[in-house]
Amino acid sequence: MENKSSVGIGKPSKRQAEILHFAREYRRENGYSPSLVEMAKHFGVSVPTIHQHVHSLQDKNLLTVEKGKKRSIQALHNHRLPVVEIPLMGLIAAGGPIEAIREPEPIEVPRSMLSSGFNHYALKVTGRSMIEEGISDGDIVIVREQPTVDDGEKAVAYMPDRNEVTLKKIYWEKSRIRLVPANKYMKPFYETNVEIQGKVVGVLRKES
């Protein structure tokens, strides 16, 4: 039985993942679980539709409900899942503003790429400025939000004077910051005003 439960975790649909997230956040904010009526109102669907999703999530071992007890919906903790959803926020190129996605959609990433206690987001890479770091055009980088990085680490860097965001390796010098591409055909450049928006902690390769 133990072996069955350890491998019996199913994959939620997009709407089911949204329901799990809502149930988890509602409980965190209020100290108790949402009712089926509240969930139906939040998603603009009928109570039977929510009940069907909840039943499916129970079958997938992603959610529990105590029979006969109100407000007993409990989304299982994320550590039970091999993957986690984070928002794909937009496109990032060698230079220029991030092209924001109008409605960022969640993407699944391995839990092993993420650090507990930090916020993470994803960006799709355009261009070849980081190919020698194994980041190719069309790949998706996983970014951990943090305001600084160590020398040589890959970061999402915003340059207010240019109103541009770039993905580069960062080196701190006395009075300036050196931004280095990982492509021997491209030269590094220097800035005095740079805001680090996060460190690259993983890469999802584009499908061939």
CATH architecture of the largest domain: Ribbon
- Largest beta-sheet details: 9 strands, mixed
Number of alpha- plus pi-helical segments: 4
If you average the pLDDT, what whole number results?
Answer: 83
CATH class of the largest domain: Mainly Beta
CATH topology type of the largest domain: Umud Fragment, subunit A
Low-confidence stretches: 1-8
Q: Can you list the strand order of the major beta sheet?
A: 4-3-5-6-11-7-8-9-10
| Gyration radius over CA | 21 Å
CATH superfamily of the largest domain: Umud Fragment, subunit A
The quaternary structure here is single chain
Task: Name some characteristics of this structure.
11 strands; Arc Repressor Mutant, subunit A; two-stranded antiparallel ribbon; 4 helices; 208 residues; Umud Fragment, subunit A; alpha+beta; nine-stranded mixed beta sheet; 2 domains; disordered N terminus; 21% helix
How would you explain this protein's 3D organization?
By secondary structure, the protein is an alpha+beta fold. It has two domains: 2-80, Winged helix-like DNA-binding domain superfamily/Winged helix DNA-binding domain (Arc Repressor Mutant, subunit A, Orthogonal Bundle), CATH 1.10.10; 83-204, Umud Fragment, subunit A. The chain contains four helices and eleven strands. The strands form two sheets. Strands 4-3-5-6-11-7-8-9-10 form a nine-stranded mixed sheet, with no helix packed on it. Strands 1-2 form a two-stranded antiparallel ribbon. A hairpin with a 6-residue loop joins β3 and β4 (99-110). The two termini are 39 Å apart. Mean pLDDT is 83; it is low at 1-8.
